[in-house]
Amino acid sequence: MNQADWKNKLALIRDGFLSGLAAADAAALAELETHYLGRKGELTLSLRELKDFPLEERKVLGALGNALKEELAAKLDARKAETGAGAVDLKKSQFDLTLAGYPFAKGSLHPLTLTVDKMCDGFQKLGFSIAQGPLIEEDYFNFEALNFPPDHPARDMQDTFYVDLKDASGKDLMLRTHTSPVQIRTMKTRTPPLRTVSAGRVFRSEAVDASHSFAFHQLEGFCLDRNITMADLKWTLEAFMQDLFGSSAKIAFSPSFFPFVEPGAQAAVSCVFCGSEAACPVCKGTGWIELLGAGVIHPNVIRACGYDPEQWSGFAFGAGIERFAMLLFGIKDMRMFYENDLRILKQL
Ligand code: PHE
């Protein structure tokens, strides 16, 4: 066969294919495809004959042949789309269209996550930004810069889990026992005025019961600015509580001790469940629910972070998130949050 004959053959293939294509239904299209483009189709076989041509001719004819192959394949696809060939006929398929669908399980956020989000939202409305810190912490941030000198008895109040790793100064690393180290990290890396909150997991070596766990969550907040007093702390906490529990919520302080604040206080919110009734299971008739540790930041802490306590002052508070979640969801045993029993979590 010479070049001219081969080109002629190609032209015949094209004509034959196109005249077949115009009138083809779905079944005819499948036949057409096998006949011309299949493994033993006319075009496929013709392309194979090219091996008998000299190299130069083979290059030119090969290009022609491949172009035709692409043209025919594209036209075939277009026609298939027109006739709907290739679509599954659902009525004839194995699908039972009358069958009801499977229920699709919807996930939801864990009540502790919802509580953290809600609390952070409340503080963001008051102009606080969000900060974060590591769970494995250095002695310096967890204790020393927070005015817990080595061997200070207050360290024993927070039974610490140590990690078998040392920090740069050779001291054992630990699982943070509170979120207060985030205060230090934030003051050291950012410049005042500062208002931040930070929520996260903390760890203490404690036996598990209805209101204790070796891993729980805290929300830490602090402010560093000029002329900050206990009054700013009280206003902020009251505004936050009213947002969370309603406009009648009030705050009361009672004296307490934490090395990193002076004065230090326990802050309680007025019982939002009763009017000081003796039988109230939440406030036990006192009318108050203790919710946070708080106070005015100790000058030693401000100094440790590189600021002059004569120029800068601040307040800080730390809240147990489980305690808030128990109030918000009406739960009496915090173990419910950790057991991951979906039958309970789904009700919240
Ligand atoms: N970090 C304290 C604790 O875990 C709580 C606290 C935070 C108290 C900030 C005062 C100020 O017990």
What's a concise summary of this model?
The protein has 348 residues and is of the alpha+beta class. It contains eleven helices and ten strands. The model has no long low-confidence stretch (mean pLDDT 91).
What is the topological layout?
Blueprint: H1 3-23, H2 26-37, H3 42-49, H4 55-83, H5 111-125, E1 129-130, E2 136-137, H6 139-142, E3 162-166, E4 172-175, H7 181-189, E5 194-203, E6 215-225, H8 230-245, E7 251-256, E8 261-270, E9 288-297, H9 299-304, E10 313-320, H10 321-329, H11 342-345
Parallel strand pairs: 1-5
Antiparallel strand pairs: 2-4, 3-4, 5-6, 6-10, 7-8, 8-9, 9-10
The chain binds phenylalanine.
| The CATH superfamily title of the largest domain | Bira Bifunctional Protein, Domain 2
The Cα radius of gyration reads 38 Å
Strand order of the largest sheet: 1-5-6-10-9-8-7
H/E element string?
HHHHHEEHEEHEEHEEEHEHH
Q: How many domain units?
A: 2
Descriptive notes:
The structure is a single chain. The chain has helices at 3-23, 26-37, 42-49, 55-83, 111-125, 139-142, 181-189, 230-245, 299-304, 321-329, 342-345, and strands at residues 129-130, 136-137, 162-166, 172-175, 194-203, 215-225, 251-256, 261-270, 288-297, 313-320. The strands form two sheets. The protein has a seven-stranded mixed sheet, with helices on both faces. A three-stranded antiparallel sheet has the order 2-4-3. Strand 3 (162-166) and strand 4 (172-175) form a beta hairpin. It is of the alpha+beta class. It contains eleven helices and ten strands. The structure holds phenylalanine. The site of phenylalanine has 11 residues, from strand 9 and strand 10.
